[in-house]
Write a structure and sequence with these properties.
The chain has 363 residues and is an alpha+beta fold. The protein contains eight helices and 18 strands. It folds into two domains: 160 residues, FAD/NAD(P)-binding domain (3-Layer(bba) Sandwich); 139 residues, D-Amino Acid Oxidase, Chain A, domain 2 (2-Layer Sandwich). The strands form four sheets. A seven-stranded mixed β-sheet has the order 6-5-15-16-17-14-18, with helices on one face. This is Electron transfer flavoprotein-ubiquinone oxidoreductase.
Amino acid sequence: VRQCFHALKLIKKNCLPLLCVSRCASTASVPRITTHYTIHPRDKDKRWEGVNMERFAEEADVVIVGAGPAGLSAAIRLKQLAAEHSKEIRVCLVEKASQIGAHTLSGACLEPRSLEELFPDWKERGAPLNTPVTEDVFGILTATSRIPVPILPGLPMVNHGNYIVRLGHLVSWLGEQAEALGVEIYPGYAAAEVLFHEDGSVKGIATNDVGIQKDGAPKATFERGLELHAKVTVFAEGCHGHLAKQLYKKYNLREKCQPQSYGIGLKELWTIDEKKWKPGRVEHTVGWPLDRHTYGGSFLYHLNEGEPLVALGFVVGLDYQNPYLNPFREFQRWKHHPTVQPTLEGGTRIAYGARALNEGGLQ
């Protein structure tokens, strides 16, 4: 406090220039925030002199980036089509997570039509679809109550015939099916760079380098990433992926597009009191705690996985107007609503996470 008053006195005495000189002098000795190679190129960094930067290259017919539902389904279908036509193709799939499904985060309520097309015998194969939807509930929340909204046939919120799943488990199962068909899966390898031919077409991808210190210097264990070249490269890396952004820039793909709208989805997994557990129940809400200018809503799914589990979450559109809005805090407020809190009372949160989402809407 004394220092603040002293500074005010100096300002009153027109000594502000002196303060500025002092501040500039104090910041002059501050080191650079980062020396990472993405900011300071390696060819201009003496720490990288003499380091072997040669990459080993592999050839494939198809390279797929991202082992989510889309990437794995594409890999599986390619191998199925190759088998139908008595062809032999090499399909390689890279995934940044250490295990297939480890980075998959979703509610999720699954409409199984695509799975039926991919594997008509998915039940016999043991696909982890254990919870058919038995009940749909939709409502508009106010601060103290819930206004029920009827779900009419034909509306998107009708989930009859769908399944509540733990999507990470389903993705892990899809990975097993892909490997059985001969897909080469490389978990723990993040695709870091898009490679291009001289004519500008996509050549493939390069995986991330390993053995780099936090400040961007090479460790003794430094290894260059692997190049994967392919006739076709499929990018299934998910929402707002960094490789997709490289492609947007290279090919000016968003020149005639309106801006994509995004959301943030926050999810938690709870074990609850068995008396409050209703396997197959699907609940969605809009409204409180968000105002009418903010897009978003909630989900609460009762899973049937052998124990009283519920998956619950909150989605907030990232175009919200209030700069002080905190999506995580709004999620916590929603959990204390009089119609939500009773379900969670006496329960335990066992997992949580968040993920960016592509949002739709009229464009």
